[in-house]
Structure prediction request, 374 residues.
Amino acid sequence: MSQLYVPANDPIVLEVLSAYDFPATLMGAVRYGQGHINDTFCVICQPQEGDAVRYILQGLSSAAFPHPEELMENFIGITSYLREKVIAQGGDPLRETLSLVNTRDGKPFYTDSNGKVWRLTPFIENTDCFQSATPELFEASARAFGRFQYMLQGYPAETLHETIVNFHNTEDRFNKFLNALMVDKHDRAKDVQDEVHFVLDRKADCSVALQALRDGVLPLRVTHNDTKLNNILIDRDTHEGICVIDLDTTMPGLSINDFGDSIRFGANHSREDEKDLSKVNFDIELYEAYTRGFIQGANGGLTENELKYLPWGARLMTLECGIRFLTDYLDGDHYFRIHYPEQNLDRCRTQFKLVRDMEEQWDAMAAVIEKYAK
Ligand code: ADP
Ligand code: GN1
Ligand code: MG
Prediction:
């Protein structure tokens, strides 16, 4: 192990790697991907002959996930269920869903000396993970997320733990924001008054989807809840979404939120933390491409009301995510990983710009749904 490359500021990685048996010479681990939550590394092994074998090693964020063992129980349940479905459909279970590598002790995850939980999954090769996409690729990702939801329709939802309580409870997100604003731990509220008022003006919106759920208009389903474009792996040969990843928040939720979170992240041409807001524009063509793909992937599984509420999913996921970024900024940036001091504020501003765009294009958004909801 002494020759291993591991990032100097992550000494714990060495401890974690030594909990696993690797089939070829372990070369090291490098930080990987653009997720905001988990500590993700790519582990590289080199056999005597042939290509390197790669794995993804992830330390679960304790700020986000207070009960990582329960999360791993969900992960095992969901991936086992999907594996059976993929096999039944003649697919490749090693590429079309995630799987775990057990530790030397035969355990599905490792708990390090600080109490943090780690998991190791085979790297799904010959795939790409995009931060932005062409309409074709975006539509492919939509088919895969729609199919993911469809495939999980029969999953026993009551067995799933709520890994983050009130995750997409937008009313609760609003209240947590109010609390952070009141406490104003870092004296930042005075500099973000425009953003604060943007949220306060939209208090009623925060209840739209939840009220529909309470009224029985929208059903609770097993949903992914974090359907960003970079939570899907696209096959390099077929250009189809081959594997839905980041299953940490898969639990009972609303289908419109899975649709909406994808639109939030992918139906524009800018980075999530773009400072120049003139570059941040909601793109209705990308929205249309995603709508087409999602409805196709869901395979008739969405009710008339769910289809009608899809634009609300987009608007609310974008508003909610902006509120979460702003709350974390007021709190002192404990939840989302940041790479510079005002990054959460920049992220919040892009979300609010997109919300404004959606509000302006509301009728057009509804018309697109009508076009495909036949
Ligand atoms: P986070 O919760 O921090 O977003 P993810 O589970 O989404 O963590 O992983 C971060 C990134 O790592 C993904 O966006 C993707 O690029 C990459 N990744 C994760 N798992 C795999 C895998 N099994 N094969 C290939 N790439 C992966
Ligand atoms: C986080 O884990 P990641 O980076 O895929 C967050 C999502 C947010 C997103 C904003 C568990 O997603 O809810 O929408 O950042 N995930 C969690 O980019 O909080
Ligand atoms: Mg992710």
Summary: Strands lie at 25-31, 39-46, 53-59, 110-111, 117-122, 127-128, 221-223, 232-235, 241-244, 251-253. DSSP finds twelve helices and ten strands in the chain. The first strand starts at residue 25 and ends at 31.
